[in-house]
Design goal:
Pfam families: MGH1-like_GH. The protein is of the alpha+beta class and about 900 residues long. Among the domains are: about 5-355, Beta-galactosidase, Chain A, domain 5; about 750-915, no CATH class. About 30% of the residues lie in helices and about 20% in strands. The protein contains 26 helices and 34 strands. Strands 6-7-8-9-17-13-12-11-15 form a nine-stranded antiparallel sheet. A six-stranded antiparallel sheet has the order 1-2-3-10-16-14, with no helix packed on it. Strands 20-23-24 form a three-stranded antiparallel sheet. Helix 10 packs parallel to helix 12 and helix 21 packs antiparallel against helix 22. The two termini are about 15 Å apart.
């Protein structure tokens, strides 16, 4: 591909003399308050340590937030607009939402905003924010959600009727780069209401506070210049200027200055130092409370705003233009419109090259917004745990409890990087397994960035010295499913296609060695009794289990996890496949491939219950045709927890297909494998039809032989159990009428099918794995079915749906599941998008209906989006699923030459699933 954006990517990725096109980007968080990083309380109560009410007055230690904001890649300089409709009690500088304890289903943003467009170098970005013209109902949202229990739906902004008769502004925010440090900024304000409406618009520029903590006293400066613009001086940035174009009716915007300092008078009733007179909330107090002394009359500070006062006619629009660029621009707006349109056109060219095979304008719109959300969800993430634990020299030391509390065992961790976030408001911190899924859609458009994200968590300043990957900041020691190797292999293969068949072996080899450390940690720490049966804890599935699987067990009690064990079987196969790829350039890796081949067989042996006479480690129930967790207690012995959930479907994911031509290149691996299979016949029997090559002389490694796979698929493809119109449910619908109950003398524990939000607050999570459809797990199911089909071919057919009397190939079923998932977002025959729910605004209003939200999970019966509303992270996988497959079964590449080598394409068929 040779669009201008591809050329910028090549320049940004050049190994020497790279052009820093990514230096500025959408790296501000949507929420910094309520995070662990800003929590210095004794009890670790992050939600109350820094609140939304405190945020306007509190200088953050570890990051910044804004509405559709940007910053440089170390978040030294930040830009974001603020608004005031003349009625709100506070300046709208940040997105409002409920904290975890306030929401009846946990934390929840209560705003309407959409990430509409973006490019990998952020040469063009577009975001839409919907701002009411009446007073924002802050108190009503808090109080009404506080009155509701978990059985009731969340009370949303639209439920307040604040948008009645369209009394709101659509504020379109666009950025376009004339150069790496020359950024055009355009705000277009649409008055959707029936009356003329006033609006104060305050584009704000500020420095992250790095000087108040007693570590480095250097203070950068913003200063009003004689031309009515704002000069930027920072020792680590080039000289910059924020040019603020006057309006015809307002010759020059007023420039307001304060400092990014905590207002200790307001927050702590304490007198600030004499050197601090103008605080972070100074612009808010000047505008809303007419406090003239809240801003600096000298026109200097570390936070500044250009104050525009608009009166937008009913049904019309007004436009503001700014430019953050070099100080020597004589006419900063002379070429503004031409450059802005050029970047819009180039963005269209970039996506047109990607989307040539997408079947409809609607599909192209959905995919483009999904990818835009992925790119907007990048964030500068800064957290130095040893500094956080000991505190800063300029402040009293943190409470003593901190040294033994949250994340105290992660003293090596020092993160200061651009990281892909699950949701920059609801989850403004990375999560290990989320990030792995993010990298696939990201690799469609920026494989370089995707590879760097995978490298990041494997670095010494992320990975624990013992080999554990950090889960997420709420508790780095929690355990996420080990999908990092899977993502590494998948991104490697995607990148290989884009590079015309030349794989980035250096990336793969470096990741492989670091993953060895993590694999070893799993073996040493999560297989307590050395039986190749793994625990792992809740493994990211929150409340899917009968008990909190991450809680400490009573002495002598062990939870044998079907999903934890299957994830490790998958991990072993992914490591084996990487080793085989590395063998092509270094034959020594055949030994490593053999190691992981054997490890997979030992795990398969444990799951099959063939550990010798009297063994009772079997996690499979043949009568039910399903895998279950098993609880072993001294009082009751081993007892399967017969909850039919995604836990029992994870064994599908441990599947690998090896082609005969690959085997011929690995004589040492084949010799060792043959010896092993001949001399360990009980293990050889576990390898699905190993001695019987499948379609095209291929060999299959899987936890599931044909009989078990058919039984499992019978459950999974049954509409009365797992199969929803919108994908595979996380819990069988069977449990709606037949809840699973585990009896103890103290209490009964119940698991019931809940297709929407969780009706219990078990285990402290706001997520629900007891029924809804989740994109990442469905993605892995589809990929696994495609791999199985790659081996079995068209002759292997399964009833689909169960009970229908109709049979399909596994590839046909994978395609059908893909269609069910894409159905969530695409318009149906009535023009409705299930994911947007029943509200008429979302479905029918022309100013809403084509804007997409990518939720955390989806109602299993209606398809409505639930949970975090901007979790374009792993729900961004829809961008990958929307890409069609070729009729011959080979998969389209994201960005590649269609005339690439056919042998590579055939090899990729099984690896580049689903839907590429």
């Amino acid at each position: 591909m040779d669009t201008p954006e591809h050329q910028r990517l090549a320049a940004a990725n050049a190994p020497k003399g790279a052009t820093p096109w990514r230096r500025f980007g959408p790296y501000l968080s949507d929420r910094q308050w309520g995070t662990v990083r800003e929590d210095y309380s004794a009890g670790g109560d992050a939600w109350h340590a820094t609140t939304h009410d405190m945020a306007r007055s509190y200088a953050y230690r570890w990051g910044e937030e804004g509405i559709g904001g940007i910053s440089d890649d170390k978040q030294r300089l930040c830009f974001a607009p603020a608004f005031w409709n003349g009625h709100d009690p506070i300046l709208k500088e940040r997105l409002f939402g409920l904290s975890g304890p306030e929401g009846n289903h946990g934390e929840d943003v209560k705003e309407l905003y959409y990430y509409l467009d973006n490019t990998p170098t952020h040469s063009y970005m577009q975001m839409l924010y919907k701002y009411p013209q009446r007073a924002f109902p802050y108190d009503w949202l808090v109080q009404e959600n506080g009155r509701r229990n978990r059985h009731k739906p969340e009370f949303e902004l639209l439920d307040t009727a604040i948008f009645h008769e369209n009394h709101y502004f659509d504020i379109c925010l666009e950025y376009a780069k004339a150069g790496p440090t020359d950024i055009l900024i355009e705000l277009t304000v649409f008055n959707r209401g029936p009356e003329d409406a006033p609006l104060h618009v305050l584009p704000q520029l500020w420095f992250r506070n790095t000087w108040s903590w007693g570590l480095d006293a250097y203070r950068p400066e913003l200063r009003a210049d004689e031309d009515g613009h704002i000069g930027v001086e920072h020792r680590e940035l080039p000289a910059l200027r924020l040019y603020c174009e006057p309006l015809a009716e307002q010759p020059a915007p007023a420039l307001l200055f304060c400092d990014n300092h905590t207002n200790s008078r307001r927050l702590h009733q304490a007198e600030p130092p004499a050197t601090e007179q103008f605080f972070k909330d100074g612009i808010n107090d000047y505008l809303l409370h007419q406090q003239a002394d809240a801003v600096n009359p000298a026109g200097t500070g570390t936070k500044a705003a250009a104050h525009y006062q608009l009166l937008v006619p009913a049904g019309q629009q007004q436009r503001l233009r700014l430019r953050l660029g070099p100080p020597e621009l004589a006419e900063p707006f002379a070429d503004f419109d031409e450059l802005m349109q050029q970047r819009r056109d180039e963005t269209d060219q970039f996506y047109a090259a990607l989307q040539t095979e997408l079947p409809s304008d609607d599909a192209r719109n959905v995919q483009r917004q999904a990818l835009a959300g992925m790119l907007w969800s990048k964030q500068f993430y800064y957290y130095d745990v040893p500094e956080w634990l000991k505190g800063d020299p300029a402040f009293p030391p943190p409470p003593a409890q901190r040294q033994h509390g949250r994340n105290a065992h992660w003293r090596h961790l020092n993160n200061a990087d651009i990281v892909s976030m699950p949701d920059k408001w609801e989850y403004p911190w990375y999560a290990a397994w989320d990030l792995a899924f993010h990298c696939l859609p990201l690799a469609m458009i920026d494989a370089h960035f995707a590879k760097n994200q995978l490298r990041l968590l494997l670095q010494d300043w992320y990975m624990h010295p013992n080999g554990q990957l950090p889960a997420y900041e709420w508790n780095f020691s929690d355990v996420n499913p080990p999908v990092h190797a899977w993502a590494t292999w998948r991104v490697y293969k995607m990148d290989q296609k884009q590079r015309g068949g030349q794989g980035d072996v250096d990336f793969l080899e470096a990741a492989f060695h670091r993953l060895l450390l993590n694999f070893t940690w799993w073996v040493n720490r999560k297989d307590v009794e050395n039986r190749n049966v793994f625990e792992g804890g809740f493994l990211g599935l929150d409340n899917i289990g009968v008990f909190d699987r991450s809680a400490d067990m009573a002495p002598g009690t062990v939870m044998e996890q079907a999903d934890g064990t299957a994830w490790m079987a998958m991990y072993a196969l992914d490591m084996m496949r990487m080793a085989l790829e590395l063998t092509k350039t270094n034959p020594i890796y055949q030994d490593m491939a053999s190691k992981f081949f054997e490890h997979f067989l030992y795990i398969a042996d444990a799951m099959a219950g063939q550990n010798g006479p009297g063994s009772c480690l079997d996690l499979w129930e043949d009568e039910d045709g399903f895998y279950y967790d098993v609880l072993s207690t001294p009082e009751r012995g081993r007892q399967p927890l017969k909850v039919r959930s995604l836990v029992g479907l994870v064994p599908l994911f441990a599947v690998e297909v090896l082609d005969e031509d690959l085997m011929r290149e690995m004589p040492k691996f084949v010799a060792r494998m043959s010896w092993f299979l001949e001399n360990r016949p009980q293990l050889a029997a576990l390898v699905s039809r190993w001695q019987e090559p499948g379609k095209g002389q291929r060999h299959l490694l899987s936890l599931l032989r044909g009989h078990r796979m058919k039984l499992l698929l019978k459950r999974m493809l049954d509409p009365a159990e797992f199969l929803s119109d919108y994908g595979v449910r996380s819990l069988s619908r069977y449990h709606q009428e037949h809840p699973y109950v585990y009896h103890t003398p103290e209490k009964d524990f119940t698991v019931r099918y809940e297709p929407a939000e969780s009706e219990t607050d078990l285990f402290g999570g706001n997520s629900n794995w007891r029924g809804p459809v989740w994109l990442p797990m469905n993605f892995l199911i589809i990929e696994s079915l495609q791999r199985f089909h790659h081996y079995y071919g068209d002759d292997f057919r399964v009833e689909y749906p169960t009970g229908s009397g109709q049979y399909s190939t596994l590839l046909g079923i994978a395609d059908a599941l893909t269609e069910r998932l894409t159905r969530l977002f695409l318009r149906d025959a009535q023009g409705r998008r299930p994911a947007l729910g029943p509200d008429a605004h979302f479905q029918d209003d022309p100013h809403f209906r084509d804007y997409l939200l990518f939720h955390e999970y989806f109602h299993a019966e209606t398809g409505q989006g639930l949970g975090a509303s901007h979790q374009t992270g792993w729900t961004g996988l829809i961008a990958k699923l929307l890409h069609p497959r070729r009729p011959d079964g080979a998969l389209y590449a994201s960005v590649t030459d269609e005339a690439e080598d056919q042998r590579l394409m055939r090899e990729q068929e099984v690896q580049e699933a689903p839907g590429k």
